[in-house]
Amino acid sequence: MAEQPYLIKVDGADIPAGPDQTVAAALIAADLVWWRRTRRYGRPRGLFCGIGACFDCLVRIDGGPPVRACLTPARNGMIIDTDRGGEGSP
């Protein structure tokens, strides 16, 4: 039997995530194409390389240190904080 989709909380809003989906894939599927800004110029950043090399997709999960969304598997109930309105990257 296939695993059912679940919800993750992103900046206070629930978005669906599928089994075997990364955090970045769930964000993109929810039309969130950027989720942090650069420190120097405030330019939006999100998924770029998709393989963990560029660090453009950093998010905080469950209050922890920044992690790469493209490498982090989504799991039911996780709380993701982005920097969509902040001063610089997480």
TrEMBL record:
Pfam families reported for this sequence: Fer2_4 (PF13510)
What the entry lists under InterPro entries is as follows: 2Fe-2S-bd_N, 2Fe-2S_ferredoxin-like_sf
Q: Does the keyword Cell division apply?
A: no
- GO molecular function annotation: iron-sulfur cluster binding; oxidoreductase activity
Transport as a keyword of this entry, yes or no, is: no
Keywords for this entry?
Oxidoreductase
Q: Which domain of life is it from?
A: Bacteria
Gene3D superfamilies per UniProt: 2Fe-2S iron-sulphur cluster binding domain, sarcosine oxidase, alpha subunit, N-terminal domain (3.10.20.440)
Q: What is this protein called?
A: Putative molibdopterin-dependent oxidoreductase YjgC
Q: Which organism is it from?
A: Microlunatus parietis
The organism's lineage is: Bacteria, Bacillati, Actinomycetota, Actinomycetes, Propionibacteriales
